[in-house]
Design a protein that fits this description.
- The chain has one domain: Beta Barrel (Barwin-like endoglucanases), CATH 2.40.40.
- It has helices at about 10-20, 55-70, 70-80, 90-100, 175-180, 195-205, 235-240, 250-260, 265-270, 355-365, and strands spanning about 35-40, 100-105, 115-120, 125, 135-140, 145-150, 160-165, 170-175, 190-195, 210, 220-225, 275-280, 300-305, 315-320, 325-335, 345-355, 365-375.
- Strand 10 and strand 11 (about 220-225) form a beta hairpin.
- Helix content is about 25%, strand content about 30%.
- It has about 375 residues and is α+β, with helices and mostly antiparallel strands.
- The protein starts with 9 loop residues before the first helix and ends in a 12-residue tail after the last strand.
- It is globular and about 60 Å long.
Length: about 375
């Protein structure tokens, strides 16, 4: 789910504005906004902490240690994690308590809850060749898509990248969804052709998936890049149009709306100008690959806003099961990002592959609290300057 978005030229505009002369007339000072924060917590504050199973959480941690163990503060943690008896839950709990401190996330208004959604790997049906049935293309990354690292020109903008294309002597925004779907399709970059336009759209929203070919073979697709336009929710748009309520806005209902309104479908899809390009993944991969470059663990990996939660951190999530009041308390690993995953307390729960995973992911819109486990001795901060 690497649907990373980029607000085109906003950082450059900000720099230009900062160079403008100050206004001669003084404006009244606005009251300072309270910034979101991490509050140091304790293990007793975590709901069901002494009862939750930690075996799959440890497996997810071990998977990311392939890259994290190079960092000094993670070397000892990863070394000990590799030696633990995964069947001894008490030993796993002692391990986490001995190496981490839980810090609870709080919003700027002092509240401690945020939106928790879900995502998964969908299964589509397609072909290597365009046919009467398979006529919707899955594109690889276009040759004319530019990735501009702003930190090379402005070090203060580290981590900011722009996506665009060259037009004459200018760099301009890359084509949006409507343009790609019509006169500016990246011809020659078709990886596959699928049989359903709505499923293709949701594949882009999820960021990865699998396609079954006519002979039964499965092709695994992963995120390659994105066109640089912001992600806009079509579910939210349908609510604004009065087509459904907030509580009704699920993937299942959105799909049905598209089936019932085929002449209006394009207009709805174009409301989201963001477009994701894919790459074919090795058959040996057992799961989707997240932003850390490692396979995600179904039910224990989640996408976060990396400005708030650094990738790789254990995150204790206290929420409820999709469309339910039943508690769901679990130690997750922050291993992915997403274009729609923006905010302090904001998470996207990875449910895995298949129809059941899709059922949970499509209906998950829960409120939840988060505690992030940082290595003992580390004091976290939230990067609010770039928000």
């Amino acid at each position: 789910m690497l649907k990373q978005t980029c607000h085109w030229l906003l950082p450059i505009i900000a720099l230009l504005l900062s160079a403008c002369p100050a206004k001669e007339v003084e404006e009244p000072e606005k009251p300072a906004e309270i910034a979101p924060a991490y509050i140091k917590s304790d293990w007793q504050a975590l709901p069901d902490w002494t009862q939750v199973g930690l075996a799959s959480s440890l497996e997810a941690l071990r998977a990311e240690c392939v890259s994290l163990k190079r960092k000094e503060q993670w070397q000892q943690i990863c070394a000990e994690a590799s030696l633990l008896d995964i069947g001894n839950n008490e030993a796993l709990r002692i391990f986490f308590e001995g190496h981490f401190t839980p810090w609870q996330l709080k919003n700027g208004d002092g509240t401690d809850q945020g939106l928790i959604t879900g995502y998964y790997e969908p299964l589509l049906y397609g072909s290597r060749e365009k046919t009467e049935r398979h006529r919707f293309p899955v594109y690889g990354e276009p040759d004319d898509l530019l990735i501009i690292d702003l930190a090379e020109l402005y070090p203060e903008l580290k981590g900011k990248r722009l996506r665009g294309r060259v037009e004459g002597k200018r760099v301009v925004p890359y084509h949006d969804r409507a343009a790609i779907d019509s006169k500016h399709a990246p011809s020659g970059k078709e990886i596959l052709w699928v049989d359903d336009e709505i499923s293709l759209f949701f594949l882009q929203v999820q960021g990865s998936g699998r396609v079954q070919l006519p002979d039964g073979a499965i092709v695994k697709l992963g995120y390659a890049n994105q066109n640089g336009h912001p992600y806009n929710s079509i579910g939210k748009r349908l609510v604004e149009m009065g087509e459904m309520t907030v509580h009704q806005a699920s993937m299942k209902r959105i799909r049905q709306w598209g089936i019932d309104n085929p002449k209006r479908l394009k207009e709805l899809l174009y409301h989201n100008p963001s477009y994701v390009f894919f790459r074919e993944m090795p058959d040996s991969l057992k799961s989707a690959v997240g932003a850390m470059g490692i396979p995600l663990t179904a039910g224990y990996s989640m996408a976060v806003d990396r400005r708030t939660i650094p990738l790789g951190m254990p995150v204790y999530l206290s929420t409820t099961w999709p469309s339910s009041e039943e508690p769901l308390n679990r130690l997750m690993l922050a291993q992915d990002v997403g274009g729609a995953i923006k905010g302090t307390i904001r998470g996207d729960f990875f449910w895995g592959f298949g129809a059941e995973a899709g059922k949970y992911a499509g209906s998950m819109k829960q409120q939840g609290r988060m505690w992030v486990f940082f290595p003992i001795g580390f004091t976290p901060t939230i990067k609010t300057a770039s928000r």
